[in-house]
Amino acid sequence: MKKKLLLVEDELRIRELVSDYFIQDGWEVREADNGKDALLWFNSLLPDLLILDIMMPKMNGFEVCREIRKLSAIPIILLTAKSADDDKIHGFELGADDYVTKPFSPKVLVARANALMKRAQGTHLPDSGIVKFGSAMLNTLAHRLEVEGVEVELTPKEYDLLCLLIRNKGIVISRDSILSRVWGIEFEGDSRVVDSHIKKLRGKLGYESRYIRTVIGTGYRFEVEE
Description:
Rossmann fold; Arc Repressor Mutant, subunit A; five-stranded parallel β-sheet; 8 helices; WalR-like; WH-like_DNA-bd_sf; two-component regulatory system; phosphoprotein
């Protein structure tokens, strides 16, 4: 089955170029040229990946990202002509998974999209696929987290972050290490992205966030249950 992309970009030339590359790579692509249409298409298309330009008419990419995150943990890549760190941090805080600055190579964008999809499908853990901590249960085979029996939807980055912490339980992982292992070595942001995602992950875990310990001045550790 083809992976489905919703591409939201108001510049026709860029939209057609990116669309062609993804179609050649075997994707099914639906296009929109503004944020409001993107939200309408999203509900009917149910895409596997969303690529959003930030500067768009009617509703910008940040606003669309915020609304989509209320509905889904779908992987989101933001496109922008801005390279300021504050804009990138804002995008990640809203739940975006990757950030690409214009001008960019469509071929590289496809590669980054495929890499993001692979990470979203689940991080390998050396166990039966079921990890329990407190009232929480992570099923890595189903890519599903439950807290007190209720499913909690995680974004791909939140899921990767939780898997990384669990896989290295009892070990302090620095913020820089988390950045390179979850966001990739090409990521140009800073450790505030890690702190922001830890905060969101803790919020979703509720009381079971007690397993994620902050090591002041260093990073984070997933506490080993006695």
